[in-house]
């Protein structure tokens, strides 16, 4: 058995300011750096990872670098682990999401994972891209633990895929950890790690 230790990046300046990011280069805040160090210590107490991989976006890379330094490992960027493309919402406050969906006749709250902001991705789009990326990571670490640092929409979409339902798909907080065990054939059910 191998284990994927899925980590949401620490708080970014956009998280702090409660807005959708405009650029991939949004950095961590000081709180985000502290969250990354605390997450690294939690991982070190419970796991023995062979590698740390991350999204290419700065906030995930910075989180991965902090975790890797604590664990004495390097980092590797994995394509397609990046955050959802929020399209026309980029740079907007989080509240703009609610305003937009209330005006959009294509939005169905019973199937919110299918809604796509103009010029962006749906959660289902993210799921398709992320599942393929995670399968590549799993294949490279079949019998080892690997830390995978990504983003909220990535982790929610992967949770829905593994649980077989979007209902109750978990969105971890910044620095949150989800564990997925796997073997050569399949990924197991996701579990929240809180200690």
CA-atom Rg in angstroms: 16 Å
Instruction: Detail the poorly predicted runs.
Output: none
- The proportion of strand residues reads 5-15%
* Average pLDDT for all residues: 96
List descriptors:
15% strand, 6 helices, 195 residues, Rossmann fold, six-stranded mixed sheet, alpha/beta, single chain
Walk me through this protein's architecture.
The protein is an alpha/beta fold. The chain has a single domain, classed as Phosphoglycerate mutase-like (Rossmann fold), CATH 3.40.50.1240. It is 38% helix and 15% strand. The chain contains six helices and six strands; from the N terminus they run E-H-H-E-H-E-H-H-E-H-E-E. The protein has helices at residues 13-17, 30-46, 58-71, 95-103, 123-140, 152-163; strands spanning 2-8, 51-54, 75-77, 145-150, 177-182, 191-193. A six-stranded mixed β-sheet has the order 3-2-4-1-5-6. Helix 2 (30-46) crosses helix 3 (58-71) and helix 5 crosses helix 6. The longest helix is centred in the last third of the chain and has 18 residues, at 123-140.
Short description:
The chain is an alpha/beta fold and 195 residues long.
């Amino acid at each position: 058995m191998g284990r994927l230790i899925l980590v949401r990046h620490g708080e970014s300046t956009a998280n702090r300011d409660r807005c959708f990011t405009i650029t991939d280069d949004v950095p961590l805040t000081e709180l985000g750096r502290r969250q990354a160090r605390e997450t690294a210590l939690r991982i070190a107490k419970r796991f023995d990872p062979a590698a740390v991989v991350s999204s290419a976006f700065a906030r995930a890379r910075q989180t991965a670098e902090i975790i890797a330094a604590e664990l004495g490992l390097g980092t590797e960027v994995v394509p397609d682990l990046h955050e959802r493309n929020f399209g026309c919402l980029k740079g907007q406050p989080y509240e703009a999401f609610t305003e937009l969906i209330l005006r959009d006749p294509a939005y169905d709250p019973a199937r919110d994972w299918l809604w796509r902001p103009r010029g962006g991705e749906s959660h289902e789009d993210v799921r398709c891209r992320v599942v393929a990326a995670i399968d590549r990571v799993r294949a490279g670490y079949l019998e080892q633990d690997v830390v995978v640092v990504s983003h909220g929409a990535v982790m929610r979409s992967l949770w829905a895929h593994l649980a077989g339902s979007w209902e109750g798909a978990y969105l971890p907080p910044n620095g949150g950890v989800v564990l997925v065990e796997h073997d050569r054939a399949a990924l197991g059910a996701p579990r929240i790690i809180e200690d």
